[in-house]
Design goal:
The chain is an alpha/beta fold. Helix content is 18%, strand content 31%. The strands form eight sheets. Strands 15-12-16-20-19-17 form a six-stranded mixed sheet, with helices on both faces. Strands 7-4-6-5-8 form a five-stranded mixed sheet, with no helix packed on it. The protein has a five-stranded mixed barrel with strand order 21-24-23-25-27. Helix 3 packs parallel to helix 7. The structure holds ligand LQZAQKY5 and molybdate ion.
Length: 417
């Protein structure tokens, strides 16, 4: 049997290096940045006010106290967005709003609360009257200096960054319209099985609702890819191959579910084990793990001669999602220049655990932080049909091949989902 690590390498080798694409910043959300982004401008771009109040020369207010306020004439009004250059003459103040450019000559801003003025709607305008200051500001007070956030020429975002909301915000603030990112890969899931029907159809005896398609497409999207799913029913090899060709289209990865173990009607395995006829090259193997033992991986040759990676996952729902997590997710993320994004931690086991001989087990668990450190509770039986416990789990307990039992209180490796 193949080890988990060996099969991880096989899957990783199916993917090419990240494919560069230039996207509008908003469309690049969630993508991996391929090049350093250098700030074309400084932020802030000009000295500006951090408060609604008055721009002053600090020296003009030296000695101001509530008992001995200093009164100055208000010469101009500077709202945010005023674009002409305004100067502040000695012995005067300008009314200024948050984000408005500081006038030449001003070296402090006094918030309106520290004066006798009011900016409340309906209050008298003070822009051509006088204002009384109760305190002496220090020079530089409430001024946001040009370049204090980032200076033009500095690296704003390093290659490898993932473009989440804050990174999109920074790029937009720098006036950057487009970025070079790794193309998000298109993942198509094709589920097989004559027992499967779609939601909305009444179930006959022996039928079940198809669930792996939606689940694996969601997992692909959670991994940062573009995921969609198709459903194929008959256990018929020519029909399956035709569906595969039609589905492959512009896919970067095809994932099938079901039809790969030892049954009499394993359509995926049958259809893809004869590369002489089809040009496909898919290898079916057993991996020493539980769940997820029957696996297949290789390359599909499309009718237009394109080679598309294909990964054939086992049909049991828990097996297919755990296989996605262990094999496909890391490879997809690397191929999209995204960090692995999963935390591996050590946690204290709260109940005894058993694991099959010669298999690396990925057991569902619930991990919590306690004052004594992380602890993990194994949940659900090992059977690969227990979707309910999978939905409850927030972690996978990674039990090494050589371990067959772990006692409560011992430490285990955990992948936090
Ligand atoms: N004689 C043997 N039998 C089995 C072996 C084996 O080595 N020898 N391996 C077992 C293991 S382990 C697994 S895992 C499964 C894998 O089976 P397949 O990949 O061939 O999948 P199916 O037989 O088509 O389905 C298995 C199970 O999962 C349900 N299923 C399948 N697709 C879906 C779907 N899209 N949505 C919801 N549920 C699905 C299906 O109804 C079956 O119950 O084989 C064991 N058997
Ligand atoms: O690999 Mo199967 O996943 O044990 O149920």
């Amino acid at each position: 049997m193949r080890s988990v690590a060996e099969h991880q390498q096989t899957i990783a080798a199916l993917f090419a290096a990240p494919d560069p694409v230039r996207l509008a910043v908003a469309d690049a959300h969630g993508s991996g940045l391929l090049d350093h982004v250098v700030a074309p401008i400084s932020l802030p771009g000009f000295d500006n006010s951090a408060m609604d109040g008055f721009a002053v020369r600090a020296a003009d207010l030296a000695g101001a106290t509530p008992d001995a306020p200093v009164r100055l004439p208000v010469a101009a009004d500077i709202p945010a967005g005023r674009t002409d250059a305004v100067a502040l003459a000695p012995g005067t103040a300008h009314r200024i709003m948050t984000g408005a450019p500081l006038p030449d000559g001003a070296d402090a801003v006094v918030p309106v609360e520290d004066t006798d003025a009011s900016f409340a709607p309906g209050a008298d305008s003070v822009s051509s009257g006088t204002v009384s200051f109760h305190a002496a500001p220090t020079a530089g007070r409430h001024i946001r200096r040009a370049g204090s956030d980032i200076t033009a020429g500095e690296v704003a975002l390093a290659a490898g960054a993932t473009l989440g909301a804050p990174q999109i915000g920074l790029l937009a603030a720098l006036g950057i319209a487009e970025v070079n990112v790794a193309r998000r890969l298109r993942v198509v899931v094709l589920s097989t099985g004559s027992e499967l029907v779609a939601a909305g159809t009444p179930l006959q005896h022996g039928q079940i609702y198809e669930s792996n398609g939606a689940m694996l497409a969601a997992a692909a999207r959670e991994a940062g890819a573009l995921g969609r799913h198709e459903h194929f029913v008959p256990d018929d090899v020519p029909q399956f191959l035709a569906k595969l060709d039609a589905t492959a289209g512009d896919a970067d990865l095809i994932i099938t579910s079901g039809g790969v173990s030892a049954g009499a009607f394993e359509v995926v395995k049958e259809a893809l084990t004869d590369p002489a006829d089809t040009g496909h090259a898919v290898e079916f193997v057993k991996v020493a793990m539980q769940p997820g033992m029957p696996q297949g991986a290789g390359v599909l040759l499309t009718p237009v001669g394109r080679r598309v990676p294909i990964i054939t996952l086992p049909g049991n729902p828990v097996s297919s999602l755990v296989s996605f997590e262990v094999f496909i997710r890391p490879a997809l993320r690397t191929a999209m220049a995204l960090p692995d994004g999963r935390r591996r931690v050590t946690a204290r086991l709260t109940a005894d655990l058993r694991s099959p001989v010669n298999k690396r087990q990925f057991m569902r668990g619930v991990i919590t932080e306690t004052p004594d450190g992380a602890q993990v509770v194994p949940i659900g039986p090992p059977g690969s049909h227990h979707l309910r416990f999978l939905a409850e789990a927030n972690a996978l307990i990674d039990v090494p091949v050589e371990v067959t039992a772990v006692a409560a209180g011992e430490s285990v490796d955990v992948i936090v989902l």
